Amino acid sequence: MKLNYRDKMILIVVFVLLIIVAGFMLFIKPAIDECSQASSDLESAKVQLSELEDQVDKDKNLAAEIQTLYTSTSQVAANFYDYQVAYKATDKVRELFNVDDVKIKNSNMTISSYGSTVLSPFAYESTATATDFDTKVDEYNNASTIDSSAADANTDENAADTNETAAQTIGYYSLDIQFKSSLSGFKNFADNLTTNNEKSMVIQNVNIENVNESEISGTMTLNMYVLKKLADPSAS
């Protein structure tokens, strides 16, 4: 079959078009797709970089903040005994019994296994009766001048304080003790519980016999509340 000039030109044009289409599909389109994907990846990376820069800016004082929190937490934890095995807890009680102004002799001491309990905040209200009438009148007059908005603000502040001091779960040991001592020695022991460095040993209950004699005897239950101390972050 002999092709004329017109047919040859058509075939050449079709062949060139096919080459262009094949080249576009094989080379140009993948390159465009890769460029589009690279552009999308670049924008995503810019967003991540911005987020990381913001996080770095927020964390630039993180070490100081951690140290501040550690200091405040340690101050609270200092009121509690450090977590310890049971026999060391009984040794600590014996140390408190052996103080010069106490000298309590224990004939039997048993300690519970380590457990946990919930400590809840409480507010103390004095039961003292005021007898100075003028003072009460002055207090009433002063109270009546308080702006109602200030009173509402105080109410909100107290509510916030209550929320901040929620009940906490803490570890403890319970010790049942039979003891003998002088009445003054036992009183000194009880007073010392509020002035010791650690203030988390509490007399749960006590039963004293022959209270009018020079040497008393009885039983008591002590609760020792303990916390595991945190490691100082500045030491790491």
UniProtKB/TrEMBL annotation:
Point out the coiled-coil segments of this chain. Answer: 35-69
State the species of origin.
Ruminococcus bicirculans
Instruction: Report the transmembrane regions from the record.
Output: 9-28
Q: Which Pfam families match?
A: T2SSM
Q: What is this protein called?
A: Secreted protein
Q: Which domain of life is it from?
A: Bacteria
Q: Which UniProt keywords apply?
A: Coiled coil, Membrane, Transmembrane, Transmembrane helix
